[in-house]
Amino acid sequence: MVFWPGAFTATGRRRVAELFPEVLAVEEDDAERFGLNGLNVISDGRHVVLPAAAQRTALLLAAHGFEPVPVTDELAKGGGGPKCRVLELGDATPLSAAA
Predict the structure, then answer these.
(1) Which residues contact 92 (CB under 8 A, 6 or more apart)?
(2) Tens digit of pLDDT for each residue in 10-35?
(3) Cβ proximity of 25 and 61 under 8 Å
(4) Burial 53-71 (b: 16+ CB within 10 A, else e)
(5) 54: Cβ–Cβ under 8 A, 6 or more apart, which residues?
(6) Who has greater pLDDT, 99 or 55?
(7) Whole-prediction pTM
(8) How many domains does the chain have?
(9) What pLDDT digit, counting tens, does each position of 31-87 carry?
(10) What dihedral angle (degrees, nearest 10) is formed by the CA atoms of 11, 14, 20, 26?
(11) Residues in CB range of 78: below 8 A, 6 or more apart
């Protein structure tokens, strides 16, 4: 999980740290530039797809053993971030069988 500590109160930061001991704090410039909505990422647990312009966050992730996969900033023109553009295909159960 990544977050920007400046968006939380001291109590909130402590709670985030309790719930997510390995949380990574992004720099203010990336948080402001991408609103952390635009910085939402896709990860398989090792690779992290993120906006190419989020270079500081990519360095942070790499320093913690992740492999950043930067994607073109053209995606940002549509609003949101990489995760917003994903259609997750989960269980293949037909809708009629799930009802």
Answers:
(1) none
(2) 999 999 999 999 988 988 888 776 65
(3) no
(4) bbeebbebbeeeebebbbb
(5) 30, 33, 34, 39, 70
(6) 55
(7) 0.69
(8) 1
(9) 776 655 555 677 888 898 888 888 888 999 999 999 999 887 676 676 666 766 677
(10) 90
(11) 84, 85
User: Which regions of the chain does DSSP assign to beta strands (E)?
Assistant: 2-3, 24-25, 42-43, 47-51, 67-71
Burial bucket for residue 34 (CB in 10 Å: 0-12, 13-18, 19+): buried
Nearest to 30 by CA among 88, 89, 76, 67: 76
Contact 23, 2 (CB under 8 A): yes
- Hey, which bits of 6-79 come out as E strands? 24-25, 42-43, 47-51, 67-71
> Which domain range does residue 31 map to?
2-98
Token pair, residue 81, equals 């971030």
- Residue 27 has what DSSP assignment? P
Please report, for residues 4, 10, 13, 21, 42, the alpha-carbon distance to residue 17 in angstroms, rounded to integers and kept in the order given.
Answer: 12, 11, 6, 5, 21
Report the amino acid identity of residue 89.
L
